[in-house]
Every structure is written in structure tokens, then in C-alpha cells.
Automatic annotation (TrEMBL):
Keywords, in A-Z order: Pyridoxal phosphate, Transferase
Enzyme class: transferase
Family membership noted in the UniProt record: Belongs to the class-V pyridoxal-phosphate-dependent aminotransferase family. Csd subfamily.
EC numbers for this chain: 2.8.1.7
All residue ranges annotated as the Aminotransferase class V domain in the record: 30-398
Catalytic reaction annotation: (sulfur carrier)-H + L-cysteine = (sulfur carrier)-SH + L-alanine
Protein name: cysteine desulfurase
Length: 411
């Protein structure tokens, strides 16, 4: 029995009642593209509307009542993020646009200050392009070297190979907690500890983990932890950099402007302490507040409940997919979350995606912004169903049936 009422949960998400038009005419939406983005519960939609109807103002800068309301809502959201990921202080939470901007912020501030010629940066073969390109750019600018932890044939990180890459030139290790392309859950705590053993910092990409498992940044001992609001039932355009306070305090700012300064003359500027130092200009106030509402919603269901329900659902989906002739699952690590990537012999991923779309079932097909890991498995693209806690076994059955029929129909 599920640890919560899935049907009640589904009623919280208006878009899940949506009937489709076009090629999937009349079919009810099945959303299996949760790794790309998640849907929003009514509580989040209502919170955004409430902000604009009753609280809208710029923050921090005025004596009037609405400024106080908006500031309280925004800083309240920061506190919710702090609690949700187990940070020790709200000052360790920086609001940005998403995981991509978060990693770029760290590379362009901490990285610019701490990575020099001959230094080494380590990423894994599993990374999303957002956790590759900024480090590659930094390495090129500084004359540093990017090194890559390989994975085994299941798509799991090879810790022994990682150990061999670490040395006194390693400055930072940037690795994902869950792979967006394969679903692999990496041994992130060990990865962080090993980075620290050579004096390097560790950045954890939590874009695909926070919505599926309990994250505690202090237990992980992560120096930086990043995620996107839109992948955890919150709005687009809002994301988070967590950084340990002493590290953030010593980091130079990235963008300059209002809000991030304590005092400005034409001769010099004194910056605010974190987090404001890293939040130049008017931020995405409403969507930060919306993210806070999303985290409250997840707390009400319980992230452990979500994780255990999704674990069973993924096992069920994997079992079903494996009955299909000609299917090859890409990514078979013992520990996985949400994602079941596959290719189907004799069909392009596009053809599989279109067959599913005709039945109202949304999956991502393509390279998932993670080309290196797909190439590691000899493919350029996969079909990638990715599950959330509002999905059901019936939806999985529909998906398996469509792919099964496609695989066994005479061409
Ligand atoms: N890292 C991972 C593991 C991701 O899955 C994603 C989004 N697909 C990102 C980073 C980038 O997130 P965003 O596009 O929201 O900035």
C-alpha cells in the first residue's frame, strides 16, 4: 500500500487532469518527464497569485508595509530552503535562477579565486552539461585541467578510479547526487569525504536528488549544494546555491549592482555579507516564495514517503519495460531514482517518443544534456521516462503497453 493517497495527491496537481489535443487528441496526460521539469500543486499556484495580489513589492529597500510583506515572504522562503536541506544558517542560502546559474556562480567566484594554473578539477562521467561546461571554461581560462571519474557498465561511479585521480592539485570535485540521464544514485557522501581528504572542496549537483530523497547538506558535508526549484514542484526561474558560511564569506561577488552592496563611492564599493553579496539586483521574489510553498507541500507528503513510493514504482516500471522485445535499458545501477532510460531496437528514440505522445504519454527523447554519459554506453540518445510521486502503476502499464505494441507490430 502506498504511504500516501496517490489519488488525493493527483487532485492537488491541476495539470494532471488535463486532456490533450492535437496528435494525442482526447487522451489524458501522463507525465513521465519529471527529470526535465515537474508540475505544480495548486498550493504553489495559489501562493504565487497571493503574492502578486497581496504582497507584491521590491524587498529590503523601503519603509512601506508591502515592502515588509514581500521581504518577510522572500526571507521566509530562504528559511524554508535552509530547513529543507539541513543548512546551519539561512545566510548559506543564495537564490539564483536554477542549478545552471548556481554552478556558474560557484565556478566564476570561488573558482576564479581558488583555481590556478596546473590545478585540477574533477567531475564524473555522469554529469549534466551544466556541471561540465562551466568547469571546462574555468579550466581553459586558468590553465587548469578537467579530470573525469569513469563509471562501470551499470552507470555507477568507480570509486577506486576516483581515488587515483585525487591529488594535492585537486581544487574542487563537482559531482551529481543523481544522474538525470540514467537515474544512478551516486555514493556522494564518500565522494565528498574523499575530496576533503586531499584538501579539495566538493560541489554536489542536487538537481535530480532533492525531490526524491532526504538531503542534509551538513551530513553530506558538502561545501556547495545546488538545485532548481522547477524540478521540485516549484516555479521556473528560481534555484539555490547552498555554500558553507566560511567559504561564502571569503568568496568575491559575481554580478555587481544594487542589493549586494553595503556602501558605494566612485572610489570603492563595500559589499554586503552573504547571501546578499551574491544577489545583485531585483531577484525573482515571487518565485522564491513559490519555491517555499513547494517545499512545504513536499514536507506535508513527506520526502521519505515520496522516496519509498517512487522506489517501488521505478522497480515496477523497470520490470515492465524489460518484458518488451528489443529493449535495452541504459543505466542499471543497484541504486537508482526516478529514471528508466532505454533504447528500442529497430526504432529511433523519436519514433518511440511519438508513439507515446499519440497516447498522451510525455517522455523525453534525446541526449538529456548529458552527451558524455550516453556516449559511454555507445548511444547518442535514449527514451527517458522519469517518475514522480504523482505517477501510478496504471500509467506505467499504459506506457509499457504502447512500447510493447510498437516493438511487436509488423513494420
Ligand atoms: N544538473 C542536473 C543533474 C540536471 O538534471 C539539470 C536539469 N536537467 C541541471 C543540472 C540544470 O538545471 P536547470 O536547467 O534547471 O538550470
Amino acid at each position: 500500500r502506498p504511504p500516501f493517497d496517490v489519488n488525493a495527491v493527483r487532485r492537488d496537481f491541476p495539470i494532471l487532469q488535463e486532456r490533450l489535443s492535437g496528435k494525442s487528441s482526447g487522451k489524458q496526460l501522463v507525465w513521465f518527464d519529471n527529470a526535465a521539469t515537474t508540475h505544480k500543486p495548486q498550493a504553489v499556484i495559489d501562493r504565487l497569485a497571493y503574492f502578486y495580489a497581496h504582497e507584491n513589492s521590491n524587498i529590503h529597500r523601503a519603509a512601506h508595509e508591502l515592502a515588509a510583506r514581500a521581504t518577510d515572504a522572500y526571507e521566509g522562503a530562504r528559511d524554508k530552503v535552509k530547513r529543507f536541506i539541513g543548512a546551519s544558517s539561512s545566510d548559506e542560502i543564495i537564490f539564483v535562477r536554477g542549478a545552471t546559474e548556481a554552478i556558474n556562480l560557484v565556478a566564476k567566484t570561488w573558482g576564479a579565486q581558488n583555481v590556478g594554473e596546473g590545478d585540477e578539477i574533477i567531475v564524473s562521467n555522469l554529469e549534466h552539461h551544466a556541471n561540465i561546461v562551466p568547469w571546462q571554461q574555468l579550466a581553459a581560462a586558468k590553465g587548469a585541467k578537467l579530470r573525469v571519474i569513469p563509471v562501470d557498465d551499470t552507470g555507477q561511479i568507480l570509486l577506486d578510479e576516483y581515488r587515483k585521480l585525487l591529488n594535492d592539485k585537486t581544487r574542487i570535485v563537482a559531482v551529481t547526487q543523481v544522474s538525470n540521464a540514467l537515474g544512478t544514485v551516486t555514493p556522494i557522501k564518500d565522494i565528498v569525504a574523499l575530496a576533503h581528504s586531499v584538501g579539495a572542496k566538493a560541489l554536489v549537483d542536487g538537481a535530480q536528488s532533492v525531490s526524491h530523497m532526504r538531503v542534509n547538506v551538513q551530513q553530506l558535508d558538502a561545501d556547495f549544494f545546488v538545485f532548481s526549484g522547477h524540478k521540485i514542484f516549484g516555479p521556473t526561474g528560481i534555484g539555490v546555491v547552498y555554500g558553507k558560511r566560511d567559504i561564502l564569506e571569503n568568496m568575491p561577488p559575481w554580478q555587481g549592482g544594487g542589493n549586494m552592496i553595503a556602501d558605494v563611492t566612485f572610489e570603492r564599493t563595500i559589499y554586503q555579507p552573504p547571501p546578499n553579496r551574491f544577489e545583485a539586483g531585483t531577484g525573482n521574489i515571487a518565485d522564491a516564495v513559490g519555491l517555499g510553498a513547494a517545499l512545504d507541500y513536499v514536507d506535508r507528503i513527506g520526502i521519505e514517503n515520496i522516496g519509498s513510493y517512487e522506489h517501488d514504482l521505478l522497480a515496477y516500471a523497470t520490470q515492465g519495460l524489460l518484458t518488451i522485445p528489443g529493449i535495452r535499458l541504459i543505466g542499471t545501477a543497484a541504486e537508482k531514482a526516478s529514471v528508466a532510460s532505454f533504447v528500442l531496437k529497430g526504432f529511433t528514440t523519436q519514433e518511440v517518443g511519438e508513439a507515446l505522445n499519440r497516447e498522451g504519454i510525455a517522455v523525453r527523447t534525446g541526449h538529456h544534456c548529458a552527451q558524455p554519459i550516453l556516449r559511454r554506453f555507445g548511444v547518442e540518445q535514449t527514451v527517458r521516462p522519469s517518475l514522480a510521486f504523482y505517477n501510478t502503476c496504471e500509467e506505467v502499464d499504459r506506457m509499457v503497453q504502447v512500447v510493447y505494441r510498437l516493438a511487436t507490430a509488423r513494420r
